[in-house]
């Protein structure tokens, strides 16, 4: 499995995969760093991170339907965490309405909205999701070489 950074020219494909999975696409921007995996058909899976100071907002995780449950989603999250550690981030936050169990099994814990730092609260994803249905989760990142 070859997980690589995705370029700006690949954004339309990213957007199509996210849209097909019901994830937000209106606020995709060059500030989001995307990683992805491809096969001959196209993009199999994607994940993104928005950096805000020492913190990251993990977002846009989606695996193409025919490639689910073979470890791809986990591999994308692990690679993103590895890069976050390399970039010396201290923690990753995420919002989810669909994948709380998936992330809980990968070390993410629920956080009360009032405990979320301002820089994460001010992101467009945070501002746009419905507070009554979306769960906020956090994982500490152990910085490389710290
Ligand atoms: C959430 C999502 C990204 C998971 O992707 P995935 O590639 O299926 O993830 P994985 O294969 O790594 O793990 C999924 C499950 O399959 C299991 N699995 C992993 N490898 C497996 C294998 N080789 N054989 C059988 N099962 C396997 C895992 O144990 C996992 O179960 P768990 O969460 O109970 O531990 C995918 O379901 C998706 O795109 N959902 C729609 C979009 C979405 O909700 N995104 C989250 C937004 S925050």
Would you mind describing this structure in some detail?
This protein is an alpha+beta fold. The chain has one domain (4-140): Aminopeptidase. Helix content is 27%, strand content 29%. It contains five helices and seven strands; from the N terminus they run βαβββαβαβααβ. The protein has a seven-stranded mixed beta sheet with strand order 1-2-3-4-5-7-6, sandwiched between helices. Strand 3 (43-52) and strand 4 (55-63) form a beta hairpin. The longest helix is centred in the middle third of the chain and has 15 residues, at 72-86. The radius of gyration is 14 Å and the shape is globular. The structure holds coenzyme A (COA).
Using the CA coordinates, give the radius of gyration: 14 Å
Major sheet details: 7 strands, mixed
Distance between the termini: 29 Å
Helices and strands, in N-to-C order?
A: EHEEEHEHEHHE
CATH class category label: Alpha Beta
User: What percent of residues are in strands?
Assistant: 25-35%
CATH architectural designation:
3-Layer(aba) Sandwich
CATH superfamily: Gcn5-related N-acetyltransferase (GNAT)
CATH fold group: Aminopeptidase
Strand order of the largest sheet: 1-2-3-4-5-7-6
Oligomeric state as shown: single chain
Mean pLDDT: 93
What structural category characterises the helix and strand content?
alpha+beta
**Molecular shape:** globular
The number of E-state strands comes to 7
